[in-house]
Amino acid sequence: MPGLKHERACLPPVAGVDEAGRGPLAGPVVACALVLPAKSVPRGIDDSKKLSAAERARLYARLTDCAAFGVGIVEPGEIDTLNIYWATMKAMTLAVDRLAEVLGCAPGHVLVDGNRLPRWGYAATAIVSGDAHSRSIAAASIVAKHTRDQIMIAAAESHPHYGWHANKGYGSAQHLAALREHGPSPLHRRSFAPVAQCILPF
User: Fold this and answer.
1) What residues bind a divalent metal cation, as annotated (predicted)?
2) In the CATH hierarchy, which top-level class contains the domain 4-198?
3) Which residues contact 41 (CB under 8 A, 6 or more apart)?
4) Mean of the pLDDT values across residues 153-165?
């Protein structure tokens, strides 16, 4: 389980940052920046990918009740303009900016999942597999993942062909088959190869 070693080595308040949705063919990329409370931290916080949807939902409710957090969302059109790497960096920046508004000050330090940092003025450290090593990053991963999943479940009601309620925009067999049959929706990332291949030339 991720611990607090990295948090304890940094100037507080320490924010963990993670994103969800780099790989899907549709939907936004979502990032969360989160500062855990000093006490009464929910039990069971772990890398969101290791948790069931029900466990993520439970922890999301607990975390958004007790922690300070900010969420950043970059939509598919901007992903196509920026590319997914820079869109992810923007989502993280938006998340930390929003967290700073909530806190009323900049975080003392930001722990970011991955090996790269956004171009920002915050004191920060990138941690490879950070959601496995930092409890703050793991908590942020839960909020980001649950937030994005709910966006895709809601979007599935308007675009039922693609099975987003189950695949959340990832390239499952059902999703790819629906893309070939129906073409892309407004929520698809047209710069991603499987989507671009289904756009008919004029």
Assistant:
1) 18-19, 113
2) alpha beta
3) 66, 135
4) 97
Q: What is the pTM of this model?
A: 0.96
Q: What is the per-residue pLDDT for 122? A: 97
Break the chain into its structural domains and give their ranges.
4-198
Q: Please state at what angle helix 135-158 crosses helix 53-66, rounded to 10 degrees.
A: 110
- Binding-site positions read 18-19, 113
Residues annotated within a binding site for a divalent metal cation: 18-19, 113
What is residue 202's predicted lDDT score, i.e. its pLDDT? Answer: 39
- The distance from CA 7 to its chain's CA centroid, rounded to whole angstroms, is 20
Tokens of 52: 């069931």
Q: Are the beta carbons of 28 and 151 closer than 8 angstroms?
A: yes
CB 74 within 8 A of CB 82: yes
* Cα(176)–Cα(163) distance, integer angstroms: 10
